[in-house]
Amino acid sequence: MNGRGMMYWMKRSVIFTVLLIGLMSCEADDFFKSAARIDCYFSHSGGSILGGRLTIDQATVHLQEIEISGIRSNANDVQLNRSFPTEGGKYSLFSGDPAQPLIFDIPQGIYDRLSFLLYLRQNDYELKFERDDDDDDEIEVDLYDYFKRATPAFLLRGKYRKSNGKTYPFVLIVDDLIRLNVSARQGGNRQLVLEESVLYTALIEYNLSYWFGLITPAMLDAAEIAEVEDAEDDDDDYLIIHKNINQNLYANIVARIEESTRFEID
């Protein structure tokens, strides 16, 4: 065992001892009802995507509800629920988001497992687009009206550089009903300790590079390009991935979101 691993287990042993002292010095029911605070932040990982050809500079997740389930040693199981209004629950995966942290108060104890079921927002506003009757390869999208009104589960924006050197604005919209079941880990372990006197920091991390792991540059090079109405910049040709546009790419990405999501408590 390396030095870092030894320090982690020593820390866990100390906290475990403190919890046992707490149990001996007060009523067990009162002890296990006391809550530990967890400040939760959202982030992304994965490094370069498609060899740097795809860059993401904006990414948001929109939560509708969170269900928390915990199995504790020598105490009752924990079941908590938190809902978000339509105008709330939106968090950036990049630093500097004033809406973060998302704060949880979870009963203290030794957890054999602590799971978070994230229900992401299912969008009520459809992306409007039209295909040319004479040319199926031409598609017009009212993207910026969608940006103003919609609340998709995930929205990623960036740039994609094709093999021929031409760069296109890139948009990924995930607006299906998405449920992510994630087990919290502490020091890489599913068994974790929460203590009322400790302020914990947690990170919900999405590996964006993994999302695109089954997609090749050739697949994106061949993707359908959409003409965007009222574009914010001079370029009105966009590479958009959505359940109704470039559907094969969309399905590949959505299928990999849950398994690439990590929840780590420090």
Helix-strand layout with pairing:
Layout: H1 3-25, H2 28-33, E1 35-45, E2 54-72, E3 78-83, E4 90-92, E5 102-107, E6 109-120, E7 129-131, E8 139-141, H3 143-149, E9 154-161, E10 167-174, E11 179-186, E12 192-194, E13 199-207, H4 208-211, H5 217-221, E14 225-228, E15 237-241, H6 247-254, E16 261-265
Parallel strand pairs: 1-13, 8-14, 10-15, 11-16
Antiparallel strand pairs: 1-5, 2-3, 2-4, 2-6, 2-9, 6-11, 6-12, 7-8, 9-10, 13-16, 14-15
Fill in the keyword field for this structure:
266 residues, alpha+beta, 16-stranded mixed sheet, 6 helices, 16 strands
Explained architecture:
With 266 residues, this protein is an alpha+beta fold. It has one domain. It has 6 helices and 16 strands. The protein has helices at 3-25, 28-33, 143-149, 208-211, 217-221, 247-254; strands spanning 35-45, 54-72, 78-83, 90-92, 102-107, 109-120, 129-131, 139-141, 154-161, 167-174, 179-186, 192-194, 199-207, 225-228, 237-241, 261-265. The chain has a 16-stranded mixed sheet that branches. A hairpin with an 8-residue loop joins strand 14 (225-228) and strand 15. The chain is elongated and about 70 Å long. The protein starts with a helix and ends with a strand.
Report low-confidence residues grouped into runs of 5 or more.
14-19, 21-26
The helix/strand class is alpha+beta
Report the principal-axis shape: elongated
* β-strand amount: 35-45%
User: Helices and strands, in N-to-C order?
Assistant: HHEEEEEEEEHEEEEEHHEEHE
Largest sheet: 16 strands, mixed
Number of helices: 6
Roughly how much helix do the residues carry, as a percent range?
10-25%
Termini distance? Answer: 20 Å
In the residues, how many domains can be counted?
A: 1
What is the C-alpha radius of gyration, as a whole number of Å? Answer: 22 Å
Provide the residue-averaged pLDDT: 87
Number of strands: 16
